[in-house]
Hints:
The protein is α+β, with helices and mostly antiparallel strands. 23% of the residues lie in helices and 11% in strands. The protein has three helices and four strands, in the order αββαββα. It has a two-stranded antiparallel ribbon. The protein has a two-stranded antiparallel sheet with strand order 3-4. A hairpin with a 4-residue loop joins β3 (99-102) and β4 (107-110). The chain is globular.
Amino acid sequence: MIDPSTTANGSVMGASADEINFWYSTTGHNRVYASSFKTTSDSTLKRNIRSLPGGALNKVLALRPVSFKYKDEPDTLNRGRQSLGLIAQEVEAVIPEAVSFNRVVNVKVIYYDMIIPVFIKVIREQETLIESL
């Protein structure tokens, strides 16, 4: 692991074919750019596998999508554009498994990839509802 405090402006850059860019700040927001991200998901690595319970639509409806700017992020980093996302404290109240606390910078973080299965469950619930009409 590279300590961002030892690099210029807390940034680490990879080769031109791939780029790793960490924006290190007191708020803990970081950016990683890559052509793809993979998550280990092999069934042989999992235990206690259960289908998600119903009610996913209510969870998704309780989420509040927002646009925002990070307080200490220079406008040049995001080309002056707003960021899009969710608020960790709000997600934690609905899908606590998708939120963790980063003790290094003392902020809550969202595992957005853990929200995807909830969206899939919503689509399935809605499809069942449509078919019953």
